[in-house]
Specification:
9-stranded mixed sheet, about 260 residues, globular, alpha/beta, 11 strands, about 25% strand, 10 helices
Length: about 260
């Protein structure tokens, strides 16, 4: 398949966020894809979970969430931000949802970006079969990979999916990736003990080439989206972890020898 064919590939997105300074180096353009296999209780983008196009009430108005686009249409937006990439070392980040649920669209968009010298990153849980991931690896400069818990039963309880496939894929992808960053959403009542964070950090340290781990504190910023979708917010009134708690867990994770950043 050539670049002209890649430009015609269609996908379904729900947002494009420009001028982001998170989710990869420099200034990023983040493309949010629809669809996810997980149902994490704390998900801040519940509108991403269903592949279908939905409606959501925002500020008293009903909005359509999701639209079908071609790679060419998305790349037009990415191209407009190239001057900021050159100055900052930024580029494209694919997010979701789970980007790999639309692997063909992701691959085509990544290939077009690399053809034009644009840095690429992907946020993922690696929760699909490895043969869906492998073709994308040469076109991704940074993998930002969620590792949520080492205990499979607890992982399933809070996300609806066991973690064996995720951990297997993490080992395979880390050995092949240009850069692989482990990200841990720190969720009270799920994985916010010293023992749980230590276990994840030790696993991250065991992965080939992994040098960095990000701790991402839980927040309730997605609550209004659940209300707008007519869905229950299953985290209830659980508060965000305190700064003191996050620094405590950072110190625990640093015992692994990894560079540990709060946020990222």
């Amino acid at each position: 398949m050539g670049i002209s064919d890649d430009l015609k590939v269609k996908g379904r997105i729900f947002d494009i966020q420009q001028f982001s300074t998170h989710d990869g180096p420099g200034i990023r353009t983040i493309v949010f894809l629809k669809g996810c296999l997980l149902r994490c209780r704390w998900c801040c983008n519940p509108e991403s979970q269903e592949y279908k196009i939905q409606t959501m009430v925002k500020n008293g108005r009903t909005e359509t969430i999701g639209k079908d686009v071609t790679v060419e249409e998305v790349f037009e937006t990415i191209q407009r931000d190239r001057i900021f990439y050159r100055r900052s070392g930024g580029g494209l980040t694919l997010s979701g949802g789970e980007t790999l649920c639309q692997a063909d669209f992701a691959l085509a968009l990544l290939r077009v970006c690399k053809e034009h010298g644009i840095n690429t990153a992907i946020e993922t849980t690696l929760c699909v079969p490895f043969d869906m991931i492998e073709p994308l690896i040469p076109y991704i400069d940074t993998f930002l990979v969620d590792i949520k818990h080492m205990n499979s039963s607890k992982h399933e309880e809070f996300t609806t999916m066991k973690n064996e496939l995720i951990l297997q894929n993490a080992r395979k992808v880390a050995a092949l990736a240009k850069r692989f960053v482990v990200r841990v959403p720190v969720i009270p009542g799920f994985n916010d003990t010293a023992e749980e964070i230590r276990d994840i950090a030790q696993f991250a340290k065991s992965l080939d080439g992994v040098k960095e781990l990000n701790l991402l504190p839980y927040h309730r910023l997605g609550y209004d989206k659940y209300v707008g979708l007519g869905r229950e917010y299953k985290m209830g009134d659980v508060p965000s972890p305190s700064k003191e708690k996050m620094f405590e867990l950072k110190s625990v994770a640093e015992e692994s020898g990894l560079k540990v950043i709060i946020g990222g």
